[in-house]
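To: structure subgroup
Subject: Chain for Friday's discussion

All,

I'm putting the inputs and outputs inline so they're searchable in the archive.
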Amino acid sequence: MVQAPDLKGRVIAITRAEDQARETADLIERMGGKPYVVPLLDFSLPEDLSQIRGFLEALRNGEVDCAIFMSVNAVRYLLKGAEVLGLRAGLREGLERAVVVAVGPRTAEELIEHGLPVDLIPEEYSSEGVARALRERGIGGKRVFVLRARGASPTLRGELERAGALVTEIRVYEARVPADLGRIRTFAEDLALGRIDAVIFGSPQSVRNFRRIMESLLGTEGLRRALSHPLLVAIGPETARALHESGLRVDLIPKAYTFREALRALAHHLSASSHVQARR
């Protein structure tokens, strides 16, 4: 029987917030690898909750035709904002009157865990996938609200507006550089010493933070040398674009844009590379 590719002995860096990295770290361990959590993102509610308030009031008034949740955090921080504002009551009923889109299965699971509806998950877990799925349903003239982080890519809004939708983006959370950079400094040293086999990026913001922090710690030339060894994995086209725009290469994009699929694709890639080297 042919053994499935694994990550045995490989050190895989996960550029996620600490509280979101555990599931991916467990997967890496089950595949024989060594997870290395690099918390390049720290999340919080916006100081100004007026956009969240406006969305909740629009829901209550039946003025939302479609609500798009672009991440697990979009769900969590909408709920946190609703609690802070004292507007949690009626949230589910409001969403039940709209078409609720989850960008991917984990976001859908988060909605369902909180008793909230999910009407649509696109085949491709990305802005392009969401836009394509909604165009197929007919989105012209619909009032569409996109719940996401401050500073997110304008791709989805542009695609939906070109399809005739009336789009409002709701900034339900902010992604910042962590205040404590101690662990990140240790990671930079390990990266420079060639101890990291792959770095997985799950969002454009994680890419931008990585480039900014690593370059400040290692210098431009030092970062270039440090990245000569590890594979750089981008989950989705927007993350890949952010790598290219940051002057970094993209070695691998999984077919399905999830951390689980990224690990499978990485294991297959490393296995194929090992076989090629063994034949030489």
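Points worth raising on Friday:
The chain has two domains: 11-42+178-279, 49-174.
Residues 49-174 form a domain with the Rossmann fold fold (CATH 3.40.50.10090).

D.
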